[in-house]
UniProtKB/TrEMBL annotation:
InterPro entries: F-box-like_dom_sf, F-box_AtFBL13-like, F-box_dom, FBD, FBL13/AtMIF1-like, LRR_dom_sf, LRR_FXL15/At3g58940/PEG3-like
PANTHER family for the chain: EMB|CAB62440.1-RELATED, F-BOX/RNI SUPERFAMILY PROTEIN-RELATED
Protein origin, superkingdom: Eukaryota
Pfam family, one: F-box
Protein name: F-box/FBD/LRR-repeat protein At2g04230-like isoform X1
Gene name linked to the record: LOC104791128
Stored CDD domains: F-box_AtFBL13-like (cd22160)
Domain F-box: 30-66
UniProt-listed PROSITE patterns: FBOX
Length: 466
């Protein structure tokens, strides 16, 4: 690694001297670095922007085609190593990309990353993609930023058959239309960031054509394209959906998720949708559900009963809480204490999770102006939950508010009834040393919590400041 660092320093110095036309010093630096083996030089070039790596081809015969063996290429239409010009001719950029791809001859084409404006037409983008596909590229990133609201439509014919692409990331000003068959035979990971589908058929055709897909990441505005976003992928193991539309969707559309092999689920920002229906996920291990509210028809919590780890940042008033359902595999639970009536969700989850071992309560905002702090009243379960009596070993509370009645009652109840507890960590918001009254009240509260432990000899109680 030291040799690479030293060589990098020489290479940057060489480029700087060439720009300053110091020919004698530049030749000395070029001679020094050219003595290194090809493998090390390629490692050095890989750490440079692709445009800089290609520019080294003018140094000497030794460097002329060295860059063509780079396994990873990245082109940015906003980048120019000589001048910084926001009005770079799109045709020049497109021709440079095509020329570079034509000269490229690495035995394994690991990655191609293209960042371009929406003003490029589908012919340009199609030629880039076709060339990359012909070279067997394994990872393709198309990052198309908005240019005066212009977008580019990817040629659907290129998705008709491909057996080498493993990772595909599409971002922003890209339109997708798949009226017919799609076949991305080897695709394992797909990221769709604010891209637009023409219709629901296009969504279904894309996912149906990815038989090996294991990970899907979707960031979208739910009211921007299709009403019902259907994800039916039998092979899918990990699914992340971040709905960026905070104002709500169509009101009569939403999500349908059918992924029977799913092991990890993360959904966030579902607001005002008509539905969110998740088919049974018997293999689910971990799920994170946050900022979900006002969905007319949903079964989110009901679909998570096989999970071993749950992170729920939501209110029981804003989602349907199943009755009679048992989370009998759950060993880790995290709840957000900023949500309305979070304590009622806690009661339900404690009563429904007989094997729970780790409980984490957190206020992600660490705010003092929490909603109606004086009106919160917690009614503990009528019977002590089985998990507290026999299984809970770790209790963590981040952002504990000493002066809030509901938080005090919850903390005391858990410490008093968790008979197998081995460690409890209470983290409070930092109080300045000058605020003596608050410091004294916090000390009294923490002492009171310590006094109610079921067995102080078997549990380690830790107090921290956040």
């Amino acid at each position: 690694m030291q040799n690479v660092f030293v060589a990098n320093c020489h290479l940057y110095k060489l480029q700087w001297n060439i720009n300053r036309s110091s020919n004698r010093v530049a030749m000395n630096e070029e001679g020094r670095i050219s003595e290194l083996p090809d493998a090390l030089l390629l490692q050095i070039l890989s750490s440079l922007p692709t445009e800089n790596a290609i520019a080294t081809s003018v140094l000497s015969k030794r460097w002329r085609s060295l860059w063509t063996m780079l396994p990873k290429l990245k082109f940015d239409c906003d980048y120019n190593p000589v001048i910084h010009d926001d009005n770079i001719d799109p045709r020049v950029f497109s021709e440079n990309v095509l020329k570079s791809l034509a000269l490229h001859k690495a035995p394994v084409f690991e990655s191609l990353h293209l960042k371009f404006a929406g003003e490029y037409d589908c012919l340009d983008v199609g030629m880039w993609m076709a060339t990359a596909f012909a070279r067997g590229v394994r990872r393709l990133v198309l990052d198309s930023f908005y240019q005066e609201e212009q977008t580019v439509t990817l040629p659907s014919v290129l998705f008709g058959y491909n057996d080498t692409l493993e990772i595909l990331k599409l971002k922003c000003a890209i339109d997708l239309e798949f009226p017919s068959r799609v076949c991305l035979k080897s695709l394992r990971k797909l990221c769709l960031d604010q891209v637009h589908f023409k219709d629901e058929e296009s969504v279904c055709n894309l996912f149906r054509g990815c038989p090996s897909l294991e990970e899907l990441v979707v960031d979208r505005y739910s009211n921007a394209d299709v009403a019902t976003y259907t994800i039916a992928v039998p092979s899918l193991l990990r699914l992340t959906i971040n709905d960026l539309n905070q104002e709500g969707g169509y009101g009569n559309g939403g999500y349908v998720i059918n992924a029977p092999a799913l092991k990890y689920l993360d959904i966030s920002g579902f607001n005002g949708l008509g539905s969110c229906l998740i088919e049974k996920a018997p293999e689910l291990v971990e799920a994170k559900i946050s900022y979900v509210s006002d969905i007319t028809n949903e079964n989110i919590l009901e679909s998570l009963t096989s999970a071993k780890r749950l992170i729920l940042h939501l209110s029981p008033l804003e989602v349907k809480v199943p009755t009679g359902k048992i989370f009998d595999q759950l060993v880790f639970l995290e709840l957000c204490t900023y949500e309305i009536e979070w304590w009622n969700l806690l009661s339900i989850m404690l009563g429904s999770s007989p094997k729970l071992q780790i409980l984490k309560l957190t206020d992600v905002y660490l705010r003092e102006d929490k909603k109606n702090p004086d009106e919160r009243i917690w009614n503990p379960p009528k019977c002590v939950p089985e998990c507290l009596l026999f299984h809970l070993e770790t209790f963590v509370w981040i952002g504990y508010e000493c002066q809030r009645g509901d938080e005090k009652e919850v903390a005391m109840y858990i410490l008093q009834n968790a008979r197998q507890l081995k460690k409890a960590t209470i983290s409070t918001k930092r109080i300045e040393m000058g605020m003596l009254e608050k410091l004294e009240k916090r000390r009294e509260m923490l002492n009171k919590l310590a006094s109610v432990l079921w067995d102080s000899n078997s549990c380690q109680l830790v107090f921290e400041s956040t």
